[in-house]
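User: Mind token order:
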Amino acid sequence: MSHRTSNGAPAPENFPFRTRDKLRYGDTDRQGHVNNAVFATFLETGRVDMLIGGGVDLMGPNGAFVLARLELDFRREVNWPGEVEIGTRVAAVGRSSLRLEQAVFHNGECVASGESTVVLTDVTTRRSKHFSEEARAFLEGSKN
């Protein structure tokens, strides 16, 4: 991730797609902080919001995104109650795959960062499918 704060963490303003998620009591573990598995769900929330809620049909007919890779770095613990902000940006666009850079912020501070790779698939054939020209233009235009 190219845009970072003085401590090397990504900054919220460098993510064009941002969404929020509520911290739930059930997200916590025995130590009282948000369980590490929940961070993958936060990244999912950010991906889905960008891929489906971005105003452009990225999937086309019979299309669906599948997660092919997830890399997640934990930076700080998070405690309930509150909410997190999830930032997502397009890092690279392939013929049918998309690499996203993401970060989770709590009270404005980066608490986790990661990369997600998703592949556009055809739900009937269960094979990858190429992005439409409209989808590709939107995704390429969203790159930082």
In short: Residues 13 and 34 are 24 Å apart (CA to CA). Strands lie at 17-22, 63-74, 83-93, 97-106, 109-122. The mean pLDDT is 92.
